[in-house]
Design goal:
- The chain is 20% helix and 14% strand.
- It has helices at 57-60, 79-89, 96-101, 132-140, and strands at residues 74-78, 93-95, 110-114, 124-126, 129-130, 144-146.
- The protein is elongated and about 90 Å long.
Length: 147
């Protein structure tokens, strides 16, 4: 076997179909496009979601709702989860960077501590936001909150 003798496997390739090359080719004259109309001309491109003149579905359905562009999304972490994290990893300071390194939040997530559950470990908490009940529970357990 030599480089100049390499060929594709039998049946793996086929010749291009040459449209519009005379009547005897079986696909001459209109080249399978039919007679007249927008689709018969070169450069035809229909609009996205065009339904043949019928009212498109995105226009038939009613508009609904409102999206506040100023909304701030926080990742919630309860004090019970904080207790579990402290027990599992043995950390004394809970920050967004520490939670990211441990894999609990993504890099640019904002973290809010909520007051569901109980906490017994005295930890230092430094996150983006904290609820009043969570702050009270952390301080009652001997921890501190930095805002």
């Amino acid at each position: 076997m030599r480089l100049h003798s390499l060929r594709p496997a039998e049946g793996s390739t086929k010749n291009n179909f040459r449209k519009g090359r005379g009547r005897s080719s079986g696909n001459g004259k209109t080249a399978g496009r039919g007679h007249k109309g927008a689709k018969s001309v070169t450069g035809y491109k229909s609009k996205r979601a065009f339904e043949g003149g019928q009212m498109p579905i995105q226009m038939r359905l009613p508009k609904r709702g409102f999206k506040n562009i100023n909304r701030v999304e926080y990742v919630p972490i309860n004090v019970a989860n904080l207790q579990a994290i402290v027990d599992k990893h043995g950390i004394t300071e809970v920050t967004t960077e520490a939670l990211y390194k441990l894999g609990y939040v993504k890099k640019n997530d904002l973290v809010k501590v909520l007051g569901n559950g109980e906490i017994s470990a005295g930890v230092k908490v430094n996150v983006n936001a904290i609820s009043a009940s969570a702050k009270a529970k952390i301080e009652a357990a001997g921890g501190s909150v930095i805002e």
